[in-house]
Every structure is written in structure tokens, then in C-alpha cells.
Design goal:
412 residues, mainly beta, Immunoglobulin-like, seven-stranded mixed beta sheet, 27 strands, binds copper (II) ion, oxidoreductase activity, Copper resistance protein A
Amino acid sequence: MPTQATANGSPAIHLRAVDGYIITPDGASIYIWGYRDETGRAAQLPGPTIIVNQGDTVTIKLTNELPEIVSLMFPGQNGVFRLTNSGAVPVGPIYENGRLVSLTDYAPPRGTVIYQFVASRPGTYIYHSGTEINKQVPMGLYGAIIVRPAGFDPLDPATWSAYGPETGTEFDREYLLVVAEIDPVLHEAVRLGKPYRPGTYRPRYWTINGRCAPDTMLPDRATYLPRQPYGSMIMAEPGERVLIRYIGAGCDAHPLHPHGNHTRVVALDGRLLRNGTQDLSHKHFTVLVGPGQTYDQIFQWDGPVYDPVTTPIPTPIPNLRNQAIGDAGWTMWSGSPYLGQKGDIPIGVTSLNVTGEYYFMLHSHSEPQITNWGEFPGGMMTMIGIFPAGTLGPEVGRLQRDSRANSTRERR
Ligand SMILES: [Cu+2]
């Protein structure tokens, strides 16, 4: 069934809860549950990113193709209803035979449920299953909702902000990082139809947008990661305001931090950090992203841009063999410490960055989380690339509506 617009033209989204597999860099294939849009048969991780406008009436139909009841929760959205033949009824916890079976209205196996809410406030939000959440959410039933502030026009960069004009949330490029962790033993138990025992939860993989490093740095919709469509490589030019949205979708807290500069936290859980005219935003080295939390931050690389002739770096530059050079194929190095310059690279190093850009890590500061089942490097790690001015196209760092999940109301 194609995605249909509702009568008022607001977004109608169809998600299906299905199973599938993801791939990790160490060659593992992990069984997951996840949300999917109309186009594919298997689950994706995370679910499709839903982007709507402030004031939209958002209608989401959930079709359940899993063997147990499944639902959707929308933390931070006010007034969520279920549409029935006789009208809209508020959703709420579901008890059967005196037992809580779901935190919200659900779809039975092979059944559907339709939710509706008004996206009244701009910001970054999570959606996830509200049923058996200590099993279904870590299995992969989660995704992101972004509500654009009133007046946002994707074609007019002057209108780009997370929370509206004059909120200190204006940005030039934006990135979304949904973080979580996976215990592959429990996932395998579910695949085999065995019980999922949360008490034995022991994650071995840590993911950003469903991928483990170094896959995190691969492009969006890389064909060899068909169920993990979203990359998390951050790219910007000096001085640009980069909006980085974090969402904690796991069971554990993840201390995330970028190198190069601190981030300024401008909003928490979809709420602007401002009290009247008082700006409550604050700079952080590390942001501890807890389960279900969202953080909006502005990252701005404001390091000095040295030039080898007019403003040389004021300290001796180490000779080549004393510079930090990684294994062959791993070095993001141009052969020169000057932004935009390129020089020699050591014998045996095969990688050379393209424009003489700088790279900084962005990673979990809990070091076991930057491994893939014990192997470093991996896990919850990506890079921030600072590119020479004028070298990044306008398409870099644009969060597009996922046209397959949001086909009805693309603004043109
Ligand atoms: Cu670090």
C-alpha cells in the first residue's frame, strides 16, 4: 500500500515492524527487529528518520509482522491518539488479565494500529516500541523524529535552525547520531525462538546509527550496508555552525565527545535550554547520553588556520617518522599539517586524504564501547572532518526527509 496523505495534507507515514540482519565490521551478521518503510522487506537500523514540520498533524500507521505484540511510543510529543473506526482515543498503558502488557496501544501480530499526534514543538525526539521495551528496543525497534521549527525552509539556509529564529540554534550543516548497543547472544536467542533474558544483557557491539566503526564513516545508503542506511561522518568547513543531534536509544548511557572543539549543548530532550531571555546553553567536553535522551549541540571548529608562508605553525613540526601515522589504509593524513595542503606520506601508507582536510575523532569515552567484540578500534566512534573553505558541496550535512517514509509532503 503506498503512503497516503491525510485529508489535511499532513504527513502520513507507514512503518512496519519486521526482522532482518545487520552487518558488523568484524564480519558478524546479527539478527534484529526493526522498523521499515514501504520499500523493503527487512528491518533497518535505526528505523526511518521521520522529519515533519512544527504544527503538522502526524499520522503513523504501524503494521506488525513480528510474532508478538509491538507498538510505538513518541516521548516528548503531547497528546498521542489512536485512530479507530469510531474516532480518536488517547493512547495509554494496556493491561490484560491484570497484567501490564504494553506501555501504549499496540498492534497484534499481523495487525495494525494507527497513531496520531500534533508535532507542536520543534526539536529532536526518539520513537521506539512501548512494548517489552527492555527487549524490543535493544532488538532495534527505535528511530528518530525531527520536528522543524515554524518557518524552516529546506531550500533557504537563512531559515535553518533547530528551534527557530533567535534561539542560538542556527546551523550551516546538521548531523543525527543515534547511539545504542547490542548483545548478539540475546539477539541470537530471539532468532532461535528462545527467551530474551535482560538480566544477562552484556553488549559486545556499540553503534552509531546502527553501524559500528569504521562503518560509521561510510556514506549514507552505502550499498554494502543495505539495512544500515545512515552514516555518521561529520564534515564541515572552518567556522561553520554544525548542529549535532544525539539520541540515546540503548539501555546504557554513552559519554560522547568530539575532539577539536567542545560542543555547545543548546537543547535537551527536545527542549531549548533557555529561560525567558536567559541563555542556559553550555559548552561540554563530554555529553553523557542516557537511554531515551536527546541532545542538540552546536559544534564550531574555530582553530587557527595556519599558512606555511604567511602564518607558519609557531612550533617545530616533527619530522615525518615522528608524526602519528597509523596502519596502512587507516591514516587520514595529507602529508602536511596545514589545512588544505598536501605533502609526502610515508612509504607503505596507502591513504591520502583528498583536500588536505583535518580529522578529529568523535567517540564514546567509555573505552570498551569503541571496540567490536573486544577488538579496537571499532564501536561507537566516528570522525569529524574539517575541510578547507569552499571544498564541501551544499549537499553535505543535509538531513533529508526520508522520501520513502515521508513521501507526501516534501516541500518544493
Ligand atoms: Cu577522545
